[in-house]
Amino acid sequence: MSGKDPYGSFHLALNASGSRGRPEGRRPPTEWLNMGYWKDTKAFPEACEGGTRTLDIGMVPKLIVCSTALALKVTQAGGCKAGGSVLDVGYGSGDSLLMQLSHPSVPRPARLTGITSLKAHYDRSLERVEDLRSQHTEVNLYHGDAIYHAPETEHPLDPASTSATFTTILALDCAYHFRTREDFLRQSYSRLASGGKIALADICFSTAHGTVVNLLIRQFGLMPSENIVTVGEYIGTMERIGYVDVKSEDISEYVFPGFRGFLAGQGVGWRIFSWMIGGLYASGARFVIVSGTKT
Ligand SMILES: C[S@@+](CC[C@H](N)C(=O)[O-])C[C@H]1O[C@@H](n2cnc3c(N)ncnc32)[C@H](O)[C@@H]1O
């Protein structure tokens, strides 16, 4: 799992871009690691998150205002409810967990569970969540693969688990990595409460996706080939599993061009990444928000 995971700490530089005057060696105030929703912003953290939030930058409190962007869109699609039980999968350095615990537009869950694949991200998230621990939300974080593999016992998607089911499962810009996404959707279904929702910000492909997609994906190990599906196939899989009220929103035009342009402006080292994002979009990749409900 970790050998294939392309992530690390490169995203800190992206979060820091634009926050001039930050003391050398100090971490940026956010540590987002998704492709963002760039409709109303040119700033990386705002594109990743969205909404209104007060961030404490140095000694001066600063209010950052922007409209709904990626993390908030997925959270809203997941129908989060006050007092609910949320599973956040692929949480990276933990900003989406912090959102659940502190964002003014997100209802506070009674239970927040997370699983992500990189140990360094898990450790960092534990640290960050610790600072926001409240008596209202019980938090349980795991380090591991999103997919449950028997005979594992400590896993939120263990079908034999006797712990309470989830009212919302969120996968923000990560399920295309899972081996496989279909297994994840199936396991999630069995651990959702009746009436519970899953919401994903994910990548799929137009019917006419080209050989560039296959080349980029094979070259960069972006996703298993089983996950290269069209939106229609994605929805069909969810319905076959049993999800109802399955919805998808294609937000590609607000994701790929904005992210590609932002990366291109970050200097020489980022150009190859920018080129890869542009190539994916040009050859049929689609960025979608997908949600479904368990009856
Ligand atoms: C694009 S990042 C998104 C991170 C976070 N959701 C955010 O928005 O900042 C994808 C995340 O999924 C994690 N990931 C990739 N494959 C995974 C797997 N098989 N199981 C669990 N997490 C995985 C990566 O380590 C990374 O943290």
Automatic annotation (TrEMBL):
Residues 55-261 form the Plant heme peroxidase family profile domain. It catalyses: N-methylethanolamine phosphate + S-adenosyl-L-methionine = N,N-dimethylethanolamine phosphate + S-adenosyl-L-homocysteine + H(+); N,N-dimethylethanolamine phosphate + S-adenosyl-L-methionine = phosphocholine + S-adenosyl-L-homocysteine + H(+). This is phosphoethanolamine N-methyltransferase. GO terms for molecular function: heme binding; peroxidase activity; phosphoethanolamine N-methyltransferase activity. PANTHER family: PHOSPHOETHANOLAMINE METHYLTRANSFERASE, PHOSPHOETHANOLAMINE METHYLTRANSFERASE ISOFORM X1. It comes from the Eukaryota. Pathway: Lipid metabolism; Phospholipid metabolism; phosphatidylcholine biosynthesis. Residues 13-32 are annotated as: Disordered. The lineage of its organism: Eukaryota, Fungi, Dikarya, Basidiomycota, Agaricomycotina. Its EC number is 2.1.1.103. GO terms for biological process: methylation; response to oxidative stress. Keywords: Methyltransferase, Transferase.
